[in-house]
């Protein structure tokens, strides 16, 4: 135990570790806040779909040779969120069917493009790192941190400003519409915020594990609190703790960062579920 503590204090001397922790905490915080609204509205599957779209956009950026792939990934993911929302309301392919179609299509096309045109010699490692997370979170530049700070601030501010409207829309769309709230605009704002956070979260946990970062803290919080605000606060605390513990564990034991963070969240969920079962019995 003493050796682990010495190793941890040694790693914490490096600025890149603190940058990774700061970005990880911000991503976890935003994911948890949005995750509560998405889970309660049964929109959690949209996170999985958009993460696969982001993977496809990242593949295009890699093939084109863009140094900053965010120039393609972020706009494409946001646009896909808008189109999925619109198609879910107006087309014959609705809800989860539209998300599943886009999700699988983007994932397949992204892998195909990387396999055919990737400039890298080790395509399998690149794909595995993008899907399941890699050490990219530990190699963040100052610009990456600034971009994360900016996007996180915008998402959190938008959520705070729309809090009461999102609360009404989450629990009763008909009542919200009758109260004069523009339900479609609120749904659109939620989808766009979700797209932005998913693009950031891919650096932490990879595209296949993003939905876990959104869903698990919310599910954990619902076993502790029974009010919307209480669940929001509990979800944020659990998600931030999971990100910190997961990242430090990954650094200490050289495990994959994304999978370790998700494993910690799963551990929290399992413990809280057992506590809930004991209380009921």
Description:
With 281 residues, this protein is mostly helical. The protein is 82% helix and 0% strand. It is built from 13 helices and no strands. Helix 2 (15-40) runs parallel beside helix 7, helix 2 packs across helix 11 and helix 12 packs across helix 13 (257-280). It is globular, with a radius of gyration of 19 Å. The two termini are 36 Å apart. 40% of the residues are buried. The model has no long low-confidence stretch (mean pLDDT 80).
Which residues sit in consecutive blocks of at least 5 with pLDDT less than 50? none
Number of helices, where a helix is a run of at least 4 consecutive DSSP H or I residues: 13
Task: Report the strand count.
Answer: 0
Give Rg in angstroms.
Answer: 19 Å
State which percent range the strand residues make up. Answer: under 5%
Q: What overall form do the CA principal axes indicate? A: globular
Summary of the model, kept short:
The chain is built from 13 helices and no strands. With 281 residues, the protein is mostly helical. Helix 2 runs parallel beside helix 7, helix 4 runs antiparallel to helix 5 and helix 12 packs across helix 13.
